[in-house]
Amino acid sequence: MKATSEKKKQKKVIFRELECDFYIDTNNLVPPDIIKFILGKLETTTIQELNKILKGIKIYIGGNHWHYNEKGYIKYQTYEFNFNNMTLLIFLNKIFELGYERWRNSLYGALRRYVWESFFHELIMSVVQILRIDLTMVDLVKNKNLNTPDDRTTNLVNKLFNYDNEAYRTIDFFTINSVLWKETLPEDLGFLYTLYSRRINLLKKKSSKSYLSQFEKIKLYNELRKIKMGYKYEYNLSELVNYCIHSEHFEPFFRYNTENYSKMHREFYYKAKRQILKFFKKYDITNELNEYRDKANRIHYFLTHTTFERVKSACLQVCLANINNKYLKEYDSFKSFYDTCPICGKKDINQINCEKFYFSSRYSYFKELLITNMKNTETLEDLNTNEFYFGIPCEDCFKVIRNIQGKYDDLDEVQNFVRRYSVCPICGSKNHLEYLLDFYYDDNRDELKGFLLKNMGNKNHLKNFNINLGIPCCNCFSKIFERDPDDLRLVFNIYE
Ligand SMILES: [Zn+2]
Ligand SMILES: [Zn+2]
Ligand SMILES: [Zn+2]
């Protein structure tokens, strides 16, 4: 009897030294230290606010501990809040999966750090959410189902969490995030470590049956090497190279160059690697590269998290300064010349279109025209008149006009067309913008388009003839004509 109560006590921890009045029931799943460590990043005033709201935090693995459709519970991806007893329930399984997914898609970094970061991040996020609770509403929501996806519930939840009030009890994310990356990885991650080991074993099994892609295999092997070296080194040198060449400065070279992807990638990779090794030599820090020989006697270099964080931006700068400088400079002047949308006049427009036009072979026609005109004029204004526009439109404008030059009148026409035919004449539902634009820009439908354009203003007139002119939505189209809406020869003249 005594033993059990002793055990219970051990499970429930209250961090008096952090001035927490709420308990933390770890279920022996995570060491209390790491929770204390995370909550320690919050300001004392935040903890005091939290004391007013929160009675306790409970840690679970997941599975059947989730509360589906139970009154007074609100459910999020990795945690729940129970308004009946004001406790926060944290689910490790979901947290692990989030960290794993991020790691799986990233080009550098060790899995354990992603898992740890995920735990840190989700715990802070849940606290932020709790801090927003309007305490006067708690009694009201106790017997309410808070996860129903209807408008009434959404409104209630919005009020409950003060979503209209931007400034409501917020915390300083920036500081917390920058602190996070400076920290060393905790030795003991509790059950998160169990989940980690299980996943590694699963990946090993998959690898032996050749179920992994080349990319996944490389990630796994690097992870296994990190384990072998006692997790002292969280990065392989190639991960540092990847960090540099997949930065926003180099990424567009590959991203929009699908045909040449592997060739360019290899070229940049080796150039960057040489630059980085030179950098390590120049600053006499090659001793921070730990040599590792694999079974085939190939050498791999590994570095610690501290080294990686210290050198990564310097290495990026070195790569930027030395790799394909000419090419990058050209692109920079292109980007700054065309930095304003000629249609809406938005400045510093999202660079996605600039990158696409410059780097993707799909737009080589546009690119040639843009570069020629750029070389022949001083400013972008010189290329635009009251009647004609020229330049790189912002993403929103390009979606509609799909061109880099034209008459402003043409633009008006598209906009009127889209407005006029925005509703399906049969069911009354809204036509997708893309669908209408595809129709508008399809050369095969010129005749029909001409007819629709001519009759844009004649809505009432045609009504007198009992004709409802319009473009049926994709659903109605396939229902009526039993064919794909791509074949749109019959779209008009829908009789009421
Ligand atoms: Zn625009
Ligand atoms: Zn319809
Ligand atoms: Zn549709």
Which structural class should the secondary elements be placed in?
alpha+beta
Number of helices: 23
Which ranges are low-confidence, i.e. pLDDT below 50, for 5 or more consecutive residues? 460-467, 485-496
How large, in whole angstroms, is the Cα Rg?
30 Å
The helix content, as a percent range, equals 40-55%
Provide the spatial order of strands within the biggest beta sheet.
Answer: 1-2-3-6-5-4
Q: What is the residue-averaged pLDDT?
A: 85
Please state the oligomeric state of the protein chains shown: single chain
Bound ligands, named by name, code or SMILES = zinc ion
Count of β-strands: 13
- The percentage of residues in β strands lies in 5-15%
Q: Termini separation (Å)?
A: 81 Å
- Biggest sheet layout: 6 strands, mixed
Envelope shape: globular
Characteristic terms for this protein:
496 residues; alpha+beta; 6-stranded mixed beta sheet; 3-stranded antiparallel beta sheet; 23 helices; 13 strands; 9% strand; disordered C terminus; binds zinc ion
Protein model, in words:
With 496 residues, the chain is of the alpha+beta class. Among the domains are: 2-182, no CATH class; 328-410, no CATH class; 421-495, no CATH class. The chain is built from 23 helices and 13 strands. It has helices at 2-11, 32-39, 44-53, 92-105, 111-131, 138-141, 151-160, 173-182, 191-208, 214-228, 237-245, 251-255, 261-282, 305-322, 325-337, 352-359, 364-376, 395-401, 408-420, 433-441, 446-454, 459-464, 474-481, and strands at residues 12-13, 23-25, 56-60, 73-75, 79-82, 87-91, 235-236, 290-293, 299-303, 388-390, 405-407, 467-468, 494-495. The strands form 4 sheets. The protein has a 6-stranded mixed beta sheet with strand order 1-2-3-6-5-4. The protein has a 3-stranded antiparallel beta sheet with strand order 7-9-8. A two-stranded antiparallel ribbon has the order 10-11. Strand 5 (79-82) and strand 6 (87-91) form a beta hairpin. Residues 460-467 and 485-496 have low confidence and may be disordered. The structure holds zinc ion (3 copies).
